[in-house]
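Encode chain A's predicted structure.
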Amino acid sequence: MNSATGNFVWTRLRRALFVFLITAQVSPTNLYSQMSSEGGALLEFIASEQQHGSVLTYSQSYLDDEHERVSYTGTLYTGIQLFKLDGCNVMARVAVEDRFSGATEHKGGFGRVRTEPTGYLTDDTVYDYRFSLGELSADGIHDLRAVPAQLNINTSVRCEEDRSCNLSWLRIMAPHGAIAETRTVNGIQDKDSRVTSIVLPMMSPEIAANAAKLFSGAVRACSAGN
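Encoded structure for chain A:
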């Protein structure tokens, strides 16, 4: 097996494992709990979306603080790992896996360059969100295309799936910090605060647009009940 074929097979296996881990945490009993028709439709949609994950195969380079060239190649996986709806209260978890390797070019005398490999590196980030649909506005639910936060847009970064490294997202905005967010990086919690905006990854622009409609419908139903 040559190197290119090996990398392709490994990427496919990693994606299959990532999707399996996401799917394994879907809670079927939560899907049919007492809720409005809008809430049921939203849960069914998200449960279907949990079967998939978004993937970016990227390369990036930049000059570090010592003006040395740093280059990376890697694969970024992201998906909704958990989604529960208890009445109008939402608990969601988004997982991001970054698998990458690269090298730093150290300049020496007489124009010589020494390359130092980084080895195989990993970054796992988990976002946990809690909020009430009744505290949101349907006007604050939108679909969008954007670069994941894990990829620095200020570097020279390119992706195989989308040259600009954009993914599809559902953006949820909440006034007055109505969303509780906890972020855990490589097993260590580094953020616990209330935020006014979050994004949930979606597989395609069409799915993101549909998610925005379903979320907006659920928000209106919960707002009407308040």
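Residues 3-23 form the longest helix (21 residues).
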